[in-house]
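Progress narrative, work stream C.
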Amino acid sequence: MPKPSPVTPDAPAAIPTPLLTQQWLDLAFIHWAVEPDAVAGLLPNGTVPDTHDGVTYIGLVAFRMHRVGWLRLPGVPYLGTFPETNVRLYSVDAHGRRGVVFRSMDAARLIPVVMGRVGFRLPYLWSRMTVRAAGDTVTYAGPRRWPGPRGAFSRITVRTGERIEQPTELEHFLTARWGMHNAFFGGSGPPAYLPNHHPRWPLHRAELITCEENLVTAAGLPAPTAAPVSVLYSPGVPVRLGRPARPAGIPTP
């Protein structure tokens, strides 16, 4: 398999003509370490788990999506603005491109959920989500509405701390992911790769006050058995998404 691209806090390439623009705001990044073999079978054909020091990670990322816009059009204030909570894994393809694979994407707007499922084949789910800030704490909560499974929910509260001036390589590995792998075009072949571009993450230390959820197991992943190895917060960044590049390629020995 080709060597993965370096872990870098800066996007490898600009996206002058974006497919989508948006802002990701008030993000909580919660991560558990897991053995690669435990999740390898859940990644798309043509990708393998991306690892750091021999392990990979399950990510639970809660945030506010803000003003999604198509091409160079202005972002949509209502339908394009909603809370979202993602369960994701970390992938690499035969070209060495590091990315994420979404196992579930809970969002509070039904129309974007349907568009994401039908138009992009992404695992969007309709949830009754809210994001509330009070002082230095932020709470993300919501039960899932459709399509299930029934009883899936999350309630996460983090207390934000000081700005991280020099993030570690692991913190860059978990947050600076410059694309996603997904079967945008359908079929059983290798997935496509959709790149993204945004400024370097402003990251803060965070304390996990509450983490009551079953989204991880609902996404088919092993239940966390220990405390998260990393909890981070970011006020957010503006984002550009490029067009899917097909195919991602199949890793070879």
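Work stream C, second folded protein:
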Amino acid sequence: MPRTIIENIVIQEYKDQTFFEFCKYTTIRFFEILYFEKGTGIIKINGKTVTYTPNSIFVFVPDDIYIVNAKTATSTVTIKFLKSFFRNTNSQPAVLPVNDWFRKIEEILNSESHQLREMKFENASDKLHLTSLINMVTTEYHKKQFYDIFIIQNSLSVILHLIARNIQFLNSESSKVTESSKIQKIINYIHSNIYNSELLTTKHLAEEFHMAGNYISEYFKKHTDVSLKKYIINYKLKLVETRLKYTDLQFSEIATELGFTDSSHLNKTFLSYKG
């Protein structure tokens, strides 16, 4: 049976099942982690079919629809962040790092590799850590009213961090050409530090990637067909759209968080770049 340990985060666990009903949370889910502890079968995601095996992990974003067809008895755990979790922030316990969690998820949401849905890992230890943390959250789930919010909070923080880190690894691995791989590393760095404008200056990026200050912009445009400045602004505006859609943050709050002078500055930039 599903249960919300934290309001608007749903934990579901199924043991040794061969039939899975359609999930009623699909239309109100913002982000989901699906872990197959055991069993084999296929999972149909947005009309495409993928096989799953023991220890397979999938991530889903808004509007994803999936159906599990088990071939052998299957045990799964799902952790679902509902859309309302990031809207009713005033009702959440003060200890929860809600904004940090949203940043991790939006990083995944705006990555091309999230379209793969099934997680791949840079190394075996990351996958082991992730499955252990999912099991830890599930153990607290079984304790019913005796669960430990500290364990759940920190486990979820590390789970999201591990997923975001390995999504970046997938982005880099998908670039087979060395030069393209370097571009991907620059892009990953921009995404990871998008809330820290000081780290995204041309001077700092040039130092970080051991390039001349007057060359990195030219290099970036040569390999992406867009200027470095425009790429950073466009990515920020993507995050603005995501936050307007899924959170209750005011325009002025979003502007401050993303390094704009004020809401008027953000508004003018948005109109200039997005029409």
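Residues 149-173 form the longest helix (25 residues). No further action is required on this item.
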